[in-house]
Write a structure and sequence with these properties.
Layout (H helix, E strand, L loop, with lengths): L2 H7 L13 H11 L11 E7 L1 H16 L8 H12 L3 E8 L4 H24 L3 E5 L7 H6 L6 E10 L21
Antiparallel strand pairs: 1-2, 2-4, 3-4
Helix pairs in contact: 1-5, 2-5
Amino acid sequence: MNARQLILERRSVRSYTDQPVPSEMIEEILEAAIYAPNHKLREPWRFVLAIGEGQVRYVEQLMELLEARGQFDQKTDEQRLSFKEKISEVPVFLTVLYHVQGTDDQQTEDLLATAAMIQNIQLLASELGLGSCWKSGKHWFTDEYATLVGAHDEERVAGVIQLGWPAVIPPLKKRTPAREKLTHF
């Protein structure tokens, strides 16, 4: 599959089979993904992998963190259990951290480089037949979550990549044509 096909056919997969993903496959993906462009080769990223028994511990500790933050205060026990079952079905959680050091411009460059590297992860996973979904936002960008995954003081969470063999591949969602977002100078 060529690069264009990979980009056009990649989907955010949220439903996975129970087939395990070999950790060697994840390492293979990461070894290629780190070739993302990054200014002055600062290589600002670090990874925390939850797979196998680590995934089980991760889900338990994530549930404890979310409960402590009141995530389920307005939910029924059934909704809480449903959420836990859903995340328990994700075979691999890969937390991507990036260094927050240097000037504001350097920090921005490092975040952007990390984002490019994350897309590489998703494209490489897709090439190997894996599904992925890049999770970000309120659950992941907290000090509590950073502590859970062992982030150092100078690190922030760029996102959490869910990986696994897809049970369902979602259909393509329509995009706004690039020409509608293009301005000529």
